[in-house]
């Protein structure tokens, strides 16, 4: 199955961070505030919809993603931040939709501050997603075999975590007694004709 999460996630990232930028512009550019608010509302609507789809696909594909404990730790933080910033953006969207025409400068300033803060959480979460792929190899097909045989492979849907040595099985080699190969080594026979 083709993974959908990495294909979807770029759209809400761009739309929601742009919403924060539009909010700042609307505060600075008062003569264009109304139209910027309208664009901001559309960005938030599409961005929140995309974020929800990204969350759903991420949760589904997490179950089949080949990963180890290092990837799992990053993924848990990435997932938690996804729920947090999606909830904040959704709340801001509802707030702006209800209060758009009645919102004064002070109230709108608070909304923009929240947007910028949430955009920061989104940016860090996106950084963690990239770190999983580009530093840890999560979702990279050639890396899956290495990860699956690597140290502390994490398996979902099981109470156990598979702990294996990274790639080479060094523990198994160290635990195995050293064997001496007699097939190629020649021992000198004692010289029985040696005279004292």
Explain this structure:
Residues 158-185 and 192-196 have low confidence and may be disordered. The chain has a two-stranded antiparallel ribbon. It has helices at 5-8, 10-28, 33-62, 69-99, 105-134, 141-148, 170-175, and strands at 67-68, 153-154. It is mostly helical and 196 residues long. It is 65% helix and 2% strand.
* Domain count: 1
Which of globular, elongated, flat, extended, rod-shaped describes the shape? elongated
Tally the helices: 7
Beta fraction: under 5%
Q: Low-confidence spans: pLDDT under 50, at least 5 residues?
A: 158-185, 192-196
Q: Report helical residue fraction.
A: 55-70%
Summarize the structure.
It contains seven helices and two strands, in the order αααβαααβα.
Features:
two-stranded antiparallel ribbon, 196 residues, mainly alpha, single chain
Helix and strand arrangement:
Layout lengths: L4 H4 L1 H19 L4 H30 L4 E2 H31 L5 H30 L6 H8 L4 E2 L15 H6 L21
Antiparallel strand pairs: 1-2
Helix pairs in contact: 2-3, 2-5, 3-4, 4-5
